[in-house]
Design goal:
It is built from 11 helices and 9 strands. The longest helix is centred in the first third of the chain and has 22 residues. It is an enzyme of class 3 (hydrolase).
Length: about 325
């Protein structure tokens, strides 16, 4: 019995030493660089987050505007890159005339002077709309951006033409597999070097189609992200990387990050070796994965010399914070 206990003790100590050495940041190097900053929707009008649900018309509850930029517009993207964004996230919808509109909402009624489901319109009709029509900071007494957004809804093709070599993250707003096929056809028509600068996330079904049709592209769905993170938490201590963590985006909620084996540097190196890119996002509280690193308090939770990616809705604040470090 004593011999068995000695062997068991030796095995436990050996395993503990292996786990420590295999996951410690000691002796691990990373590029000496600033974090890669992903601007979610670009510079946009901020709004009161209290009680927001998927059905909330956020344009009707904006904070008093500090600028005239509207999310998902060319001007907003230009300002985001100028402010310090490395990547800009945008939202797309297919149109009835075979294009992709860059616009956030599933329907037009909240932000614009149009009505109905966005994807049920032609791009020619969407170009006529005022996408600043519905923004109000005082409950509808005034509409400070009304009239300033006429014709500003771009196509994805226009975005690519305006920014021929800058990286983007596409958000597919539906779970329609046909949308994945249409987007794959557009992307496969691009030169390989341009295609390599574009990533995508969204519904499980279109992302599955896109992943199969454009295999070198980094893609992510909500389900694939959960499988990646849960698998890594379960057995990442071995150094093995779950299949779902390969060639993907990995959104890491800042409150989940400490549970990831080898966080931060060894984890980031493992994701790099799997052809993936990790972005720290805001805390996960059981909802979706769209919150960003949007306050100094959240940014202060990043490890010292953090060199991975981060997602933010406040690119100007984050850029200023990084400059002041």
């Amino acid at each position: 019995m004593r011999r068995f206990l000695r062997y068991a003790f030796f095995a436990i100590v050996t395993l503990a030493v292996f786990v420590f050495l295999n996951n410690t940041d000691l002796f691990v190097s990373r590029p000496d660089r600033e974090p890669i900053v992903l601007a979610h929707r670009g510079i946009a009008q901020r709004y009161d987050l209290a009680g927001v649900t998927n059905d909330t018309c956020t344009a009707s509850r904006i904070l008093p505007p500090k600028h005239d930029y509207l999310e998902n517009t060319i001007a907003s993207m230009q300002a985001s890159f100028k402010a310090g964004a490395d990547i800009v996230e945008l939202d797309i919808h297919p149109t009835t005339d075979g294009q992709f509109a860059v616009f956030h909402d599933w329907t037009l009624d909240c932000r614009t002077d149009g009505h109905g489901v966005t994807r049920e319109h032609s791009m020619a009709d969407l170009k006529k709309l005022d996408i600043g029509y519905g923004y109000t900071a005082d409950g509808g007494k005034t509409y400070p951006l009304r009239g300033r957004g006429v014709g500003l809804m771009p196509t994805f093709a226009e975005v690519l033409e305006t920014f021929p070599d800058l990286p983007f993250l596409i958000n597919i707003k539906s779970n329609d597999p046909d949308e994945g096929s249409k987007l794959a056809a557009l992307l496969n028509a691009l030169p390989p070097e341009r295609r390599s600068t574009i990533m995508a996330y969204g519904g499980d079904r279109p992302i599955a189609i896109l992943r199969a049709a454009v295999p070198a592209m980094k893609t992510m769905s909500r389900a694939s992200l959960k499988r990646c993170l849960l698998g890594y938490i379960a057995y990442g201590w071995t150094g093995a990387i779950p299949g779902e963590c390969h060639s993907t985006l990995v959104f890491v909620p800042i409150n989940v990050a400490p549970w990831l084996w080898g966080w931060p540097n060894r984890f980031l190196n493992r994701m790099d070796s799997a052809g993936s890119t990790a972005f720290v996002i805001g805390p996960y509280n059981g909802g979706d994965f769209s919150t960003g690193m949007d306050s100094v308090e959240e940014l202060s939770r990043l490890p010292k010399h953090y060199s991975g990616g981060m997602l933010t809705n406040e690119i100007e604040m984050v850029a200023a914070w990084l400059r002041a470090k």
